[in-house]
Design goal:
Layout lengths: L1 H10 L10 E5 L2 E4 H23 L8 H18 L4 H6 L1 H17 L10 E2 L2 E2 L8 H23 L2 H6 L9 H15 L1 H27 L3 H47 L2 H12 L1
Antiparallel strand pairs: 1-2, 3-4
Helix pairs in contact: 2-5, 3-5, 5-10, 6-9, 6-10, 9-10
Length: 281
């Protein structure tokens, strides 16, 4: 049996597509299959959430509205709960809610019929999920971290205070200086960690489904179904992980900077000495 499967894969094998392919060109700009599908998903989300917004009422409703409201509440609690100052967290809820639903629906959109090899043009899939394109996930990671850095600098009160939160002690101490520089270098790798994690999970899921669909031949819908359902869970999990990491990156810098400011302003050696003298008097 194993030799038969090996021979079958050697003869042709399943069709695997990782890199984006150009569908057509507009004004010298190549429009790839993942780019096109990303635009379609964006348009569908705008229409869908416009419809949902008109259906939302003070009293809870059933149907799809309640699931969207539950998702919004979940992300809202996630964002607000990460910050010591809840007012700061509420300001960034719209961005992270939008990011969560875009990633979620982009992941799930790659599992619907006519996406992938079922609909081809010029020998490649006409549509592919945007999150299955490393260029797209890199762009999402870059935009997210630019917002995180910009918001962090704004909330802590300046670039100098933001940089200061990387150092657990005086940066003039060689040990603290090295630790701080390593923390700053690690912080710069977060764009790659966010984008690669999302891309690899979606791309590997596509490959697994393609392999088992190929093995199933005419029974492909049956053999690929368990892995398609699994990928729905993975897609939701990856949307959650992307958002929770981005939220924590922002919250950690803001919370630690505020804590450091409180320490330097209220817990100086003079105030600590004065408090001690009062306690012993």
């Amino acid at each position: 049996m194993i030799s038969g499967l090996a021979a079958r894969f050697a003869d042709s094998g399943p069709s695997i597509h990782v890199a984006p392919a150009t569908n057509f060109t507009i004004g010298g700009v190549n429009i790839t299959n993942s780019m096109l599908y990303g635009w379609i998903v964006c348009l569908a989300l705008i229409i869908f959430f416009t419809y949902i917004a008109r259906k939302v009422t003070v009293h809870p409703k059933g149907g799809v509205v309640q699931y969207v409201e539950a998702g919004v509440d979940f992300v809202t609690d996630l964002v607000v709960g990460a910050f010591d100052d809840k007012k700061i967290g509420r300001k960034y809820v719209p961005f992270f809610v939008t990011l969560f639903f875009f990633i979620l629906f982009s992941n799930w959109a790659g599992l619907v019929p006519l996406v992938g090899d079922s609909l081809q043009i010029h020998g490649h899939p006409f549509l592919r999920p945007m999150t299955g394109d490393l260029n797209a996930t890199l762009a999402m990671g870059l935009v997210t971290m630019i917002l995180v850095y910009g918001a962090s600098v704004k909330e802590v009160g300046g670039f100098g205070k933001y940089v200061r939160h990387f150092f657990i002690g005086s940066p003039f101490n060689p040990l603290y200086l090295v630790i701080g520089l390593i923390e700053m270098l690690t912080d710069l790798t977060r764009v790659l960690s966010l984008s690669l994690r999302l891309f690899l999970n979606v791309a590997i899921g596509e490959i697994v489904i393609a392999v088992f669909a190929y093995l199933g031949s005419i029974a492909a819908p049956i053999t690929a179904l368990p892995f398609t359902l699994l990928e729905m869970g993975v897609g939701a999990l990856q949307a959650y992980i992307f958002v929770i990491l981005a939220v924590n990156y922002l919250a950690i810098s803001v919370n630690s900077a505020h804590a450091h400011n409180d320490l330097t302003e209220d817990d100086t050696p003079e105030t600590i000495r004065a408090t001690a003298e009062k306690a012993t008097a």
